[in-house]
Amino acid sequence: PVTGSGTGDGMAFTPVAPNTQDALVVPDGYEQSVVIRWGDPVMPGAPAFDFAAQTPQAQEMQFGFNNDFAGLIAIDGEPNNFYLVCNQEYTTEEFMFTGYKKLDPTENQARVSMAAHGITVVEVTSESGSGKLTPLVGQRNRRITASTPFTLTGPAAGSEFVKTTADPAGTTVLGTIANCSGGLTPWGTMLSGEENYNNYFSNADKVTDPAAKEGLDRYSFADDADYHVWGRYESRFDLARDPNEANRFGYVVEVNPHDPTSTPIKHSSLGRLKHESANIFVTSDGTVVAYTGDDERFEYIYKFVSSKKITPGNGASAMRNNLRILEVGTLYVARLTGEAPDQIDGSGKLPTDGKFAGKGTWIPLLTVNDDGSSESKIAGMTAAQVAVFTRTAADKAGATKMDRPEDIEPHPKTGKVYCALTNNTKRGTDGEAGADEANPRNENKNGQIIEFTDDHAGTEFTWELLLVCGDPAEADTYYGGFDKTKVSPISCPDNVAFDPHGNLWISTDGNALKSNDGLFAVALDGENRGETKQFLTVPRGAETCGPIITEDRVIVCVQHPGEEDEYSADKPYSNWPDGGSSQPRPSVVAVWKTGGKIGV
Ligand code: FEO
Ligand code: CA
Ligand code: CA
Ligand code: CA
């Protein structure tokens, strides 16, 4: 539980300096161990990982590739054990197979790749006196892949836009893919965002129906976006045969790890976009508010406000009710205005009042009623169209184009909402939207963190930039007003989380400052607001994801170690975590303080 407002208490560690080591570097006095890595057994009977002879059958029972979001979910009555839930976002085939030919997978390679996607639920057990976590292979675990059946809910379900040859009812979708970040719900489930699914469908350019074509274009489907080439072996990924299959991905999915036989859900009431994540705030009357961002340049920030109230408790009937909360309510998109529009010139120079700040409005797009009926709030679009082509609805609503909204998460104590805007090098170029106060730099390479003070169930908010990232020696950066000579440099924020003291932790992807990506703690409240300290760095070419911060341990996902220019299994740039001349393996890592609590 988060008990503080984030004054910087709990950030007492020596910051890790920027570096380019092929290692996970932690502060002095901290230890680390790999919890689980690509290919490790998850399901009973899973074979040991064999890099040279990987099969789809083995991969379906093993930990998948490129772990992104991670969450720990308590198990009732078993205080030392947790469900570790983890997204397996995408595959980098060049790392998975020696001699891989780009855009030309064998059937075995394509099917290993499908099985390496999705979500893993794996029980882990802790050891007293250390932060180490050990996975337990067993029937409680689960691998969800690109082939697992999901139930589609909300206005998209059964609509003409999602019916396919294999599913004429338009209610059962096979698989989840491109699962980036996510969140945990108060009722004990995991939410996961389907993000870059446009990279999995072939023949987008052969679709001729104008409406279908427009829908594909608005979500960046194109022949050259598909680098997995699954359509060669599975026709549903070939848009020339089944263009509607594209409309069955791009949702927030919900998984109940307490029941490994449960059918996971795709929630279309939260819209279809490139969801980075979804994270929940519960208001004092039990209204559930889910925040979600659309991660592509110039895309939008959304929230869903439930009209049902949360059912307290963790029994079976509470779970049944709560699993339906994200179906009924209103979906909104954010429009932001700045306080000093005349002072924004795209350089990142602070307005004279010393901050980038302003107001905003949530514009309704869609309401789903208790009886399952739904109403579009956008002229010329049906409710089903708004649920499936949500970007188009938000365009019509006049939403504010942001610098790639990544993870967004409400602070459990203060209720303020933090969103990472990772970068946008196209801002202000070639006829694209120029800088505004919330996205104050053109050709933005380093990103920013925005803080919303939201009337959660209402439609008004104020906002302020907490960080404008980049080299603190540069004039176009801002660290919450804190002394910039005393901060760790941060660039390209991606995932956000909170520690038990209420400080914000940020993991990065794509550090534009020529050092490895890392994990940072940032104070939010009081005189240290904006203090930023790097807690760890990940190995060469990797992105830092996951993160989970508890009293006892920090967990990070190390995604795509070694992913540098011209990477391949034939000449790996990273040998992490197994060392020697081994292939790099995406892994989940636990870090803890020897004989103590994190940051204390
Ligand atoms: Fe998969 Fe938006 O990062
Ligand atoms: Ca991300
Ligand atoms: Ca998060
Ligand atoms: Ca990312």
TrEMBL record:
Ranges for region Disordered: 566-587
Pfam families the UniProt entry points to: PhoX (PF05787)
InterPro entries: PhoX
Superkingdom in the source lineage: Bacteria
Protein name: Phosphatase
Organism listed in the record: Williamsia maris
Lineage: Bacteria, Bacillati, Actinomycetota, Actinomycetes, Mycobacteriales
